[in-house]
Write a structure and sequence with these properties.
It is a single chain. With about 325 residues, the chain is α/β, with parallel strands linked by helices. The protein has 2 domains: about 120 residues, 3-Layer(aba) Sandwich (Rossmann fold); about 180 residues, NAD(P)-binding Rossmann-like Domain (Rossmann fold, 3-Layer(aba) Sandwich). It contains 13 helices and 12 strands. Strands 8-7-6-9-10-11-12 form a 7-stranded parallel β-sheet, sandwiched between helices. Helix 3 links the parallel strand 3 and strand 4. Helix 5 packs across helix 8. The radius of gyration is 22 Å and the shape is globular. The structure holds 2-keto-D-gluconic acid. 2-keto-D-gluconic acid binds next to loops. The site of 2-keto-D-gluconic acid has 11 residues, from loops.
């Protein structure tokens, strides 16, 4: 009787894109993971050689495993994401093939909600623009910075009252804000005011905070009509994904003064930020730093590795998606 040779350990795990150093180190030392080359031609040759050994892919929520790559990995069982969002992965194809997905919820909620609060305060009170005023010597040369609008006690709409949305609402309640929201369905147990559509929500509030997951279901949700409903005195804050907002419509509304301002941590084609936005003091621009604290990123890295180890030892995930 022949005993089947044990499956080779090396090559079961594929790293897709750059990851936190703790994750990269463990992938290398603990799992002898393969790393997909960044260059397309090299990636193609690499996959010709190694694709049929890969059982688990590990990537950031933004890079993920897209349709093409997923099709090249016939034995893929799971995609482990560093990040709460996983819109870089073809979730529909994964579901059809029974491929499991994990993400890193909860550990980044506070950091992202803090970022939303900071953008909210900054875009209404123009603190970053006032900082530039000081640095340029305008305080001495031109006098006091122009008055801005009040941030406390405003009517704020949250698009996506999930974990992050609720944490944003909690922070804004401390500022005496009145919270409205839109989800597919009303959230049980909340006293915040529900609106049945994004358009209705935008018409009812002064500031709209986007906290809904990215991906095909939410793409382009904040369109020209929603921005028009917010109006020239209205503001948009986005800590979710650039894809949720029609960026062309947003740039037009801002440059033509049809929207009061925007605080943005995310963009349609990162790291590209439309040139027209860089010139406006009515916008605050951040380079996707929502979860980027030392503590949060470490917790995300640890949870990513717990998911990976769990899958390889027991075929289950600690924080499966959905
Ligand atoms: C990270 C994020 O920037 O969790 C997410 O969905 O967008 C961020 O926390 C990203 O996932 C990894 O770099």
């Amino acid at each position: 009787m022949t005993v089947p040779a044990p499956a080779p350990r090396t090559g079961h795990v594929l790293q897709v894109g750059p990851l936190h150093p703790l994750v990269e180190e463990a992938l290398d030392t603990e799992f002898s993971a393969l790393r997909l080359p960044d260059d397309d031609a090299a990636a193609g040759q690499f996959l010709d050689r190694h694709a049929d050994r890969v059982r688990v892919a590990v990537g950031s929520g933004r890079t993920g495993v897209g349709t093409e790559l997923m099709r090249r990995l016939p034995r893929l069982e799971a995609v482990v994401h560093f990040g709460v969002g996983y819109d870089g992965t073809d979730a529909a194809e994964a579901a059809a093939r029974g491929i499991a997905l994990s993400n890193t919820p909860d550990v980044l909620t506070d950091a992202v909600a803090d970022t939303a609060l900071a953008l909210y305060l900054d875009v209404l009170r123009r603190f970053s623009a006032a900082d530039r005023w000081v640095r340029r010597g305008d305080w001495e040369a031109r006098g006091n910075y122009p008055l801005t609008v009040h941030a406390s006690g405003r009517r704020v709409g949250i698009l996506g009252l999930g974990r992050i949305g609720r944490a944003v609402a909690h922070r804004l309640e401390a500022l005496g804000c009145e919270i409205h929201y839109h989800n597919r369905r009303p959230v049980p147990g909340t006293e915040h005011t529900y609106h049945g559509s994004v358009l209705e929500l935008a018409a009812a509030v002064e500031v709209l905070v986007v906290a809904v997951p990215g991906g095909p279901d939410s793409a382009g949700t904040v369109d020209a009509a929603v921005l028009a409903a917010l109006g020239p005195e209205g503001f948009l804050v986005n800590v979710a994904r650039g894809s949720v907002v029609d960026e062309t419509a947003l740039v037009e509304a801002l440059t033509q003064g049809r929207l009061g301002g925007a605080g943005l941590d995310v963009f349609a084609a990162e790291p590209h930020v439309p040139e027209a936005l860089r010139e406006l003091d009515s916008v605050v621009l951040l380079p996707h730093v929502g979860s980027a604290t030392v503590q949060t990123r470490r917790e995300m890295a640890e949870l990513t590795l717990r998911n990976l180890r769990s899958w390889l030892t027991s075929g289950t995930l600690v924080t499966p998606v959905g």
